[in-house]
Amino acid sequence: MLNREIPFLRIGVPLCAGIVCGYYFRPDTLFFIAALILIIAAFPVSLLFNHNISNPAYGIIFTLALFIAGLLLYTREKSSISSLASEETYFSGYLSDYPEEKENSFKMIFKMESGMMGGDQIPLNGSILLYHKKDPACLSYLPGDRFIIKCRPLEITNRGNPFEFDYRFYMENRGIRYYAFTDSSDISGYSVPGRRKLAHSALIIRERIIDMFRERGIEGDRLALVAALTLGQKNMLDPEQKQYFIKAGVMHIMAVSGLHAVILSLFIFKLLFFLKGRLNIIRVLITLILLWAFAFVTGLTPSVLRATIMFTFLHAGNIMKRPVNTVNSVLASAFVLILIRPSVIFDAGFLLSYSAVIFIICFYRDFYLKLRFRHRLPDLIWQSAAVSIVAQAGTLPLTIMLFNRFPTWFILSNIIIVPLSSIVIIVGCLVPLTFPITFISKPLAVLLDFLTGMTEYLTARTASLPLSTIDNIGLSITGCILLTITMFLSMRFLLVKKSIPAILPLSSLLLLVLSGTIRDISTRRSAELIVYNSIGHPTVGIRTGKVINIYSDTLPPGQEVTRHCAAQLLRPNLNLIPEKPCLLKADDNALLITKHLNYIILAQNKPDILIIEGGKPVLERIAQPVEKLKAVIVASGTNPGYQISKLIKSLNADTVHFAGREGAFRLKL
Q: Does the reported pTM lie above 0.85?
């Protein structure tokens, strides 16, 4: 039944499984050649089973072919990013976006085309994240501008802390594997292209629209909010503004997504009410053209593309008078995006967007019909609440896993703020459209400024309510998958009568509880020492079961500790390191933290594990022999120069670890 109504489910699942497998396993070309030969040979054999009602052999081979295709697509995407040596090289390429101003530099994404290596010009692929020293000239650079630039590429690495955000993987999925520091003297060539790419033209148009808002009197925080709500440009927002929307549970309205596409498409469609009958096809075409234009201006983000492609499929089906399964249209749009960029399935926005939409399509109507209101106003409020509850149910596991928090007032905020933001989006689109007509665009800009201020005020008030968010809650990847399945099956069983047997949601719930229990038992029966790769100060964690003792120069400790405790549901005991040197006990090991080291300190404390910290530690030569150390860890923020390296060599330790360079240190006890 599902194969006929939702064929893209059968196509998409093995394709995505192959992509996920590619994250853990990178086969070589020989593997794909062998797999291709095997699949081509197996398809004719499967035809021998065609006399049966079903052909399981063909289904298995087809599924395997899709799995291999997903694995191949992801492997090719990753291998297409060029590997670079960490040495000064001249690169030729162009800017992918506007320079983003930081405190001491401009952050620029530089798309490589070629590089001078060994005296030869080698074609390259991928991007470098440039931190360019502040220069007024950067303000004039536009997306697509071409450069010849000299830099020393450094590979992007993670800090190595437990359960931290995988920044390296995130940047690699955007085609960026390296970063570099540059200044104006490193630019040896600059030119403006005769013709820019569509993506670059879209970014320039988006910036010009922001200038239109500015010319009509919208400034400061409200301009930043208008740019985020209508165009998806969040670089202008203050961190405090973002926190308000996160705590209120309406951050999704800042990410230009399907919500924006729905609002605009419905507005345009209703606006063209006079095109009926045979002219309906013109009405649909105008709607789709304007919707694709909006997607183009907002940078063709996956969430907007998903909605735009889905609406295109739905409207195309209506024009051809063929009923279209909504879930299949959503999955078809996902299939197109995956073919364009396989790693999109790992993007948080992609996952949140599709999970919310699928839950709304599957459960909104049945949930909404559970309550009936005779009057229009309470019915509209209930509609908004029902959509929010169903969407939140779909994104709950991902929200907890990705952000370690849950907004408790999401129903209230979505009922009030989402409808208000819908008006902001519509008015925000009308201002640039009517910009040449001053007597229309100016009043609209005044209205937009007022509505934006009201949105910001209500969001801040909601975020300041008691218990606005439940923080520091975590979930593993396995737990996230099982909780999503449990939520889906439970809602299906409760809302759609006789759709599935009760054993299915109960079984998924049992698996969820079982996985959590296994993880909990494993954690309780283990212990470890962790020297976090924290910024600015050393942080040491000694975990025994579910309790972790944190020792740090500053309290509370950094985000790396909070995320680790949330992900493993640990109970932290915070301790301020009183003085240096500081001797701690970690199981049967003596742990010494010091920024001053000599023979007397070593002889008196007799440590098994030594942690050297401080920006410029005072280290004296160890002339006499000392007991052999299990490990020497140089904490982050300590410069691992020649003096430290020479001293460590004389200590003759089993393990030497530089946290700032190699990531956090972890040792099972």
A: no
